[in-house]
Amino acid sequence: xxxxxxxLKRHRYAYxxxxxxxxxxxxxxLVPTVSxxxxxxxxxxxxxxxxxxxxxxxxxxxxxxxxRDAVRNTFLYWIVGTIGIMTLAMGIALALNTKKLRLKHFxxxxxxLPYVCxxxxxxxxxxxxxxxxxxxxxxxxxLFGGExxxxxxxxxxxxxxxxxxxxxxxxxxxxMIILSGLLNISEEYYEAALVDGASTWxxxxxxxxxxxxxxxxxxxxxxxxxxxxxxxxxxxxxxxxTSNTSLFELMxxxxxxxxxxxxxxxxxxxxxxxxxxxxxxxxxxxxxxxxI
Amino acid sequence: MKTVQIETMHAxxxxxxxxxxxxxxxxxxxxxxLDTVGIVNLVDAGLLLDMTEYWEPIAHEFVEGAVADATINxxxxxxxxxxxxxxxxxxxxxxxxxxxDPAMMSTFDGYLEAGRLLKxxxxxxxxxxxxxxxxxxxxxxxxRGLMPQAHARIWDDDGNVxxxxxxxxxxxxxFLEKLYNxxxxxxxxxxxxxxxxxxxxxxxxxxxxxAFWDEFMRxxxxxxxxxxxxxxxxxxxxxxTGGAPVSTFFCFxxxxxxxxxxxxxxxWYDFQTNTEERNAWxxxxxxxxGPYSNPVALKVLEHPFWQEPSEFYGGQSFRKAEADGLANxxxxxxxxxxxxxxxxxxxxxxxxxxxxxxTMDQAIANMQRELELRIGRAYVIK
Lengths: 292, 382
Description:
Mean pLDDT of chain A: 90
Low-confidence stretches of chain A: none
Shape of chain B: globular
CATH topology of the largest domain in chain B: D-Maltodextrin-Binding Protein, domain 2
Radius of gyration of chain A: 24 Å
Distance between the termini of chain B: 33 Å
Number of strands of chain A: 2
CATH class of chain A: Mainly Alpha
CATH class of the largest domain in chain B: Alpha Beta
Low-confidence stretches of chain B: none
Number of strands of chain B: 10
Oligomer: heterodimer
Order of helices and strands of chain B: HEHHEEEEHHEHHEHEHEEHHHHHH
Mean pLDDT of chain B: 92
Strand order of the largest sheet of chain A: 1-2
CATH superfamily of chain A: MetI-like
């Protein structure tokens, strides 16, 4: 009997217990993923049988300005979103963790509220906030003597409402994660540092940040994945053409609005490759710096 | 047939495509309401039932051309639900206030001139019409409006892309450019509260748009009720044809099981030809500000009910105006299965033009280039 079968037989009960997950994974994740790779080499509208066209979808992608726009926008959402969410979440978590803060439960609940709101509904509200003529944002700008900005009518500014909504929606979740990390740091470290005369900043840099390393890394990975599959925000707050279209949205539009399932599959494959590459880079960097 | 689901036409086509793909034929709807693009796509895939045998004996009971947009290869693939014209809605009080005769808007040159007068006499407070920052500019000003009236073409008869060199396209989109460049169009988002607010404040004087707009006006405007009037769409003098109609159809899905077909066809026929019931239904829809359209059955249209005055239009009969708007129609743009994608490509260029990032000439050149790159040649179903 081959070693694999021997191992299977020896651990049959363990495999039996994990089989429900494995079957679901196989049917709903692995098979569709492999099929997507196959369909990315076809021309297919979902109604007629797919036709093999080789690399043509990928060749088109690299000549397609909509794809370039979508990659550029998603990259922007990733960078600005990560910096914005991490900074705000850290700041709010630190504020919620201070001993002097009263009504902590209220503030924790209030902080978490944006996360439980439906993103499409919030998108529609943000659309009104950023409306050119009567939107609140422009009203405030006008109040201070500024010019009204065509937020969603200009390619130059259309990314801003999208990334603002993205940051606003995700910050609460990451605040809670960072806060849970802060609560796990022993007070003794801070007391010892205080005795040694460390300033607040020094305590933050030399105690808080290193001890939050793994938590922050988790946040970074999760935000990265969320940013590269951003959809609702850019879909609801669409600007001129593809000026603020995300890669995920372009994939959806190609496949389910234009019924070009082959091209949509090719975009999906590229999205997976980008995410894999980013995750790999992050792991390699962390391993080299001895953090993992 | 278990439930009635209300979705957009596009979502309906998407559902049929996904069910077909999954082999879940029983989950497909029995009936779907479609426009020409949806019909072309589903006929191409063999997913609609051929209704020619049923239609031919009753065709004389309906308005001429009722199934023109659902006829492919001489076969009729759907039964008509509505044929709605392109119209010009205008705020009569604004025109009266600034002493401008609305009759001058019977041609596009006159329409432009009316816009200039409005701008001049209101010190820039009143705009001739609107322009949407998203996809609706192409849909309502372009595909369903100026393009067919200018006899413009996206494709030639063989499916080659010709929009970049087409004279009609230059006429249609060039006119839109003129309106926008002269500051006659109020930039806003279609169907949004700020837009309705601007209309009620008297900032927008006209809408060159399909008859469906009536429903949205009635539902959303409060301060300008009774001020609006309707007339036939302006014409390009060098072309001479009026607004192109937009048709919607009842389509019967080819799902292998036709158990409910006769029932559905009977329901459709009754809804279209039962004058008393149809009129009662329309009266109720008008009362609740709901959507309705003129019937396509000649017998129903002859009833005096369809000449009755409408309160929202200051005593003018909207129903009669809708019927009148169908006179001298322009032919619609040729539709191919690739038109969904083509609309996205063309609209993206129009949106960038609205944002002031390119001229209309550049936009048209980019449409040609992108359509050639991404679609190449459209599949023409004749």
